[in-house]
């Protein structure tokens, strides 16, 4: 089979590999559509998870099942399925402890394009198919289904980590596709005020549609100065970090009320340490909690998110700014995500006829 791979840090291209082998609990799928993630950029060009040689990239797609193992009960060849970016081993001790995304070790539920070949290929392997795949709603467009792999569950997990409650004031730092879903999730949870940090107009417009009430740009001054000015010096109840870098936490802590929560779902692709301001953190005693978490994967999560879309509670289509058709456009879409032109939110490549 052919796949688009990271050859080494900074270099990528099409390679030929053996088709993956299906174990008794597994499935082999072929993509119907794939989406490009900023994580692919961090992995390929920044070497954020270290050197990888000839590893097929990609972890966002929807797919058709082509083969299932002998112990798979609920899926069969021909099924169109949602595929989460995180595919835990559900019989692991970590999963039993409630942290399935770390099954087998920290971040080890993230398998695609981390330590096994990803989905930018003619065929890809899914472990524990009954626990990780979900049937794709019949009327859901393939490009929309791709958004359920990572963007929606990651943004929503930021809301969960921050523990957004009815009436909370919420700051969302970064309104790319994950941040946009954090805005949507905070709005669903009943946030009264949602301040979004972003500069690209296409993202600002989408964030307004998802429920953001106020906007600031880091180009207009520090985030903390603007947020404290907008809130009469009080700060906000909850913060979701969906963009920025290790230094972003300095601003986040300064914007947060005592007793508030910061939920980080941003992939920190470079840097050795996260900066926490000592005084604004209450000299260590300010009850300002910081939690960073990898999104939950698995079938139940996918089914619930799919239900939100089919019920009309969540429209993911505004996330998609660029649509391509055919594998020949994959590299173009990947480089587009790297370069981030001002009209970009999310590129999708449709593979099916």
From TrEMBL:
Pfam families according to UniProt: ADH_N, ADH_zinc_N
Alphabetically list the UniProt keywords. Answer: Metal-binding, Zinc
Q: Which residues form the Enoyl reductase (ER) domain?
A: 10-350
Please state the span of the N-terminal signal peptide per the UniProt entry: none
> Which cofactor(s) does the record list?
Zn(2+)
Q: Which family does the record claim for this protein?
A: Belongs to the zinc-containing alcohol dehydrogenase family.
Q: What is this protein called?
A: NAD(P)-dependent alcohol dehydrogenase
Q: What taxonomic classification does the UniProt entry list for its organism?
A: Bacteria, Bacillati, Bacillota, Clostridia, Eubacteriales
């Amino acid at each position: 089979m052919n796949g688009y791979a990271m050859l080494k840090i900074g270099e990528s291209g099409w390679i030929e590999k053996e088709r993956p082998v299906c174990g008794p609990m597994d499935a082999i799928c072929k993509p119907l559509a794939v989406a490009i993630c900023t994580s692919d950029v961090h992995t390929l060009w920044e070497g954020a998870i270290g050197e990888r040689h000839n590893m097929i990239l990609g972890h966002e797609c929807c797919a058709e099942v082509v083969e299932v193992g002998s112990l798979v009960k609920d899926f069969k060849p021909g099924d169109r399925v949602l595929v989460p970016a995180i595919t835990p081993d559900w019989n692991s001790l970590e999963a039993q402890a409630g942290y399935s995304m770390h099954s087998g070790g920290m971040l080890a539920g993230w398998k695609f394009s981390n330590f096994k070949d990803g989905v930018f290929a003619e065929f890809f392997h899914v472990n524990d198919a009954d626990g990780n795949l979900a049937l794709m709603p019949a009327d859901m467009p393939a490009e929309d289904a791709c958004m359920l792999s990572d963007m929606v569950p990651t943004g929503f997990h930021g809301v969960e980590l921050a523990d957004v409650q009815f009436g909370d004031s919420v700051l969302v730092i970064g309104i790319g596709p994950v941040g946009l879903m954090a805005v949507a999730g905070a709005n669903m949870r009943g946030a009264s005020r949602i301040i979004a940090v972003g500069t690209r107009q296409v993202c600002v417009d989408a964030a307004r549609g998802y429920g953001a009430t106020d906007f600031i740009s880091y180009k207009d001054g520090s985030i903390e100065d603007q947020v404290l000015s907008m809130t009469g010096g009080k700060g906000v109840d909850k913060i979701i970090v969906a963009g920025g870098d290790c230094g972003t936490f300095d601003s986040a802590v300064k914007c947060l009320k005592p007793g508030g929560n910061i939920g980080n779902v941003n992939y920190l692709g470079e840097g050795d340490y996260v900066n926490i301001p000592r005084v604004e953190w209450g000299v260590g005693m300010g009850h300002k909690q910081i939690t960073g978490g990898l999104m939950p994967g698995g079938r139940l999560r996918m089914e619930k998110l799919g239900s939100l879309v089919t019920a009309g509670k969540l429209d993911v289509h505004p996330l998609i700014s660029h649509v391509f058709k055919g594998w020949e456009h994959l590299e173009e879409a990947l480089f587009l995500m790297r370069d981030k032109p001002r009209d970009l939110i999310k590129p999708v490549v449709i593979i099916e006829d």
